[in-house]
Amino acid sequence: xxxxxxxxxxxxxxxxxxxxxxxxxxxxxxxxxxxxxxxxxxxxxxxxxxxxxxxxxxxxxxxxxxxxxxx
Length: 71
Hints:
The structure is a single chain. The protein is mainly beta and 71 residues long. It has one helix at residues 4-13; strands at residues 16-20, 29-36, 40-45, 50-54, 58-61. The chain has a single domain (4-61), classed as Roll (SH3 type barrels). The protein has one helix and five strands; from the N terminus they run H-E-E-E-E-E.
């Protein structure tokens, strides 16, 4: 699970993140961290829609190679 410090770093920098939810790359969510609580993270996508995602997913900078969720 991603830490509050990591989420705050992403929020303050405005860095685009990738949320890896499963093994299919098309299901990744790309956007900017807006807010979070103990269970969920709010991500603003490029089309300005906000989605709530579980904190158990893999959060990584968008410009890094995609992480493998099975590893």
